[in-house]
Amino acid sequence: MDKTEHNSREGGARSAAFRLALAARLKGFSAEISAEAEQTPVRPYRPDRALFPVPELVLFALREGMGWRWYGHGEKVLWTVRGTIDGQRVAFERQKFGFTIFLPKDRADLKARVEGQLRAALGEVETYLSEFAEAQVEAGEVVIANHFSEFEDRYRFHRELADAAHRFKLEPHDDIVGAQGDAATHSGFISRDITQRMNRMATVQREAFFHSTAMIDAYFSCLEHRLILLRAFTGRPFGPGEVLKLLKMRWGDKLKDVLGLPYSTEAAIIIRRMRRIKERIRNPFSHGGVENDKGSIHFHLPKIGMIPTNFTRFGDSIRFSVIPVGADDHAGVCETFDALDALLSTGALASPHEFVRWGVDPNFDAAHSAEYAEAIAEGPEVVDAFIEAWSRRWENFQNMDF
Predict the structure, then answer these.
(1) Taking the CA of residue 11 as centre, how many other CA atoms within 13 Å lie in the half-sphere pointing to its CB?
(2) Which of 75, 212, 386, 393 could form a disulfide with 162 if both were Cys (CB 3.0 to 4.6 A apart)?
(3) With contact defined as beta carbons under 8 Å apart, do 258 and 230 qualify?
(4) What is the pLDDT of residues 315-369, one digit of tens each?
(5) Interhelix angle for 192-233 vs 148-167, to 10°?
(6) 40 contacts 86 by C-beta, under 8 angstroms
(7) Which residues lie across from 44 on neighbouring strands?
(8) How far apart are CA 118 and CA 107, in angstroms?
(9) Are strands 98-104 and 42-45 parallel, antiparallel or unpaired?
(10) pTM, 2 dp
């Protein structure tokens, strides 16, 4: 027996075992619909979404596993599968507004049974499909949803708040400004109003710091996602296992894969600044205050006091200043992020960026990689046409306008 025949027999045995296990889970479910059952009035309801988060697995279980009749696209319907339970007509549909179950009008008691048996059956489906799913991932026959706009919006949201907070200035009140323009005092004491204003300024600076660090964290998250999408849209094919390898890469390695080596002088400067932001600001606040150069650790020097383990390098620590990220730090970070954004959206990455920006979900298989490469090679007009056609298909699917 050769390997192909062996694999075929093994696959057939697994398939047969799967169907037997499924039939045991779905006892009473049948593909047969009598003429009498066809006349039974049914009523639709939508189960809790959490019960069947992937309705397509229900279709697989009933159509492939149980041999139920199914129907394709309808008015605001993606698919329908029909059969009986103990001779009672039932149906399941993937509609625009959610997964829908149809039960006989006078059999509300079937609801709990149908949900319970189907959920148990889906466990068998997942076990059966797990090996195939892993093989598809290994081969790169996968799609990754494009959430760039969501990540970008989160970053921009925090950046706008940080910008506003860092720009905030208190205007001095006329009645507390002296003749020389300095803040006036009463009997040698700072007035209550001045104290309140100083507290207000300190609060705003603290808020600016919070928004800046949230902005930085959001940008790095966006960057990780963006680089995965850009790599797919460059059109360079993936070898076996390379998609998983890409997902596991650190952002610096993803940059190397997307930009290619050696870096230009401009790119090298930008990436060096990005690494400094990561080491000095992002990592300490993302990893519980731990600094890689031990700046977060102090040792006790007898008769002297507490000394930072990184000694004079503590002057570069995020904790050296009362406000860890001030206006100047924020401005420098934003300048670096803008420079990297320009690097990732111009030149050879201009067209891949358009795919990313307009929300195209990338396929990582060889055929789609070739399509992206061909569109890019033919120029911006062809890329725009590709995006427009993809968007129409996406909208039709989301609205189920077939």
Answers:
(1) 9
(2) 212
(3) yes
(4) 666 554 545 666 778 999 999 999 999 999 999 999 999 999 999 999 999 999 9
(5) 160
(6) no
(7) 102
(8) 17
(9) antiparallel
(10) 0.84
